[in-house]
Amino acid sequence: MTKFFKIAAATALLVSSVMAAEYTIKLTHVVSPNTPKGKGADFFAKRVGELTAGKVEVVVFPNSQLYGDGEEMKALKLGNAHIAMPSFSKFTSIVPEMQLFDLPFLFRDDDHLHKVLDGEVGKIIKDKVTAKGFVALDYWDAGFKHMSSNKKAILLPTDAAGQKFRIMSSHVLEAQFKTIGANPQVLPFSEVYSALQQGVVDGAENPLSNFYTKKFNEVQTDLTLSAHGYLGYLVVMSESFWKKFPNDLKPMVLQAMREATEYERKEAALDDADTLAKINEYAKTSGTLKVHTLTPEQKAAWAKAMEAIYPQFYSVVGEDLIKKVQAVK
Ligand code: LMR
């Protein structure tokens, strides 16, 4: 090696050691980087780097690469992962009251939803998560869920009877499908595509971003814009990790999270319309998928059939909590 190259190599080593982050935050999630949650996670990582001048690096592991459903919360407890943003259903074995958010037709629209999440009810739920030894940060959006199938168009609850649907692990979601005569089956998100493709299940319920980025449109023949339930996330951090994290850097991380929440929610709102256009285009060009909208009468029939499960959850979720959500104007 010439003297010049030796100096260049030594300088490169010095620069990289000066630049190397002092702390690493491992963030895990199960969806595509191209979803609102995925984009929000990447935005957070970028802002943490900027606000801490490179002292803290956030490494994002998307697509269940590091941990899948059921593993994320354990990994946070053990300190093997530091931040996760699981959907509400995935908290329900730890905080059963979180099944509240799975109740079909609970939220009237985005505005109602955000008032609930950012208000008293959202705080009650966060406190319960905190009491279980996690740092509860912010609520993020995926969107309203829609039914899909590879058997037939599902326009009325009776159309779903006898069909097998993939669900997340949640007693509410189980009851929701059983009440319309369908067969729910719990599967991790990472297995949904192959389960649909191989006919292990006939259908699923997903927000449009997850439906499209995971290519479920390729293995389903009918998508009904049912918007019968909501899928959202609570961003949580490992308590043991946060306790050891340097106090002087905490405000920057929290600031980056506040900005990421605002960004993620905006992305989710934009993404829904955008993704629907892409799905409609796919339906038109492929000829293998039909997209159905519901008439007000059909929608009312869904609400009537599914809301019938509420009383089953009065004791576990708390009737008062459900009433509080409904009372938010
Ligand atoms: C699902 O399992 O369907 C969702 O929770 C995936 C996600 O994180 O959006």
Q: What is CATH's topology name of the largest domain?
A: D-Maltodextrin-Binding Protein, domain 2
Shape: globular
Largest sheet geometry: 9 strands, mixed
Strand tally, please? 9
Ligand catalogue: (2S)-2-hydroxybutanedioic acid
- Radius of gyration, taken over Cα atoms and rounded to an integer in Å: 22 Å
Termini, distance in Å? Answer: 73 Å
The low-confidence parts are 13-18
Report the CATH superfamily of the largest domain: Bacterial extracellular solute-binding protein, family 7
Give the oligomeric state: single chain
> Total domains, how many?
2
SSE string, helices as H and strands as E: HEHEHEHHEEHEHEHEHHEHH
Helix content: 40-55%
Structure, described:
It is a single chain. Helix content is 45%, strand content 19%. Helix 2 (36-51) runs antiparallel to helix 10 (250-286). It is α/β, with parallel strands linked by helices and 329 residues long. The longest helix has 37 residues, at 250-286. Helix 6 (171-178) links the parallel strand 5 (164-167) and strand 6 (183-186). The chain binds (2S)-2-hydroxybutanedioic acid.
Secondary structure blueprint with pairings:
Blueprint: H1 3-19, E1 23-28, H2 36-51, E2 56-61, H3 72-78, E3 83-84, H4 110-117, H5 120-131, E4 134-149, E5 164-167, H6 171-178, E6 183-186, H7 192-197, E7 203-206, H8 208-213, E8 222-238, H9 239-244, H10 250-286, E9 290-292, H11 296-307, H12 314-327
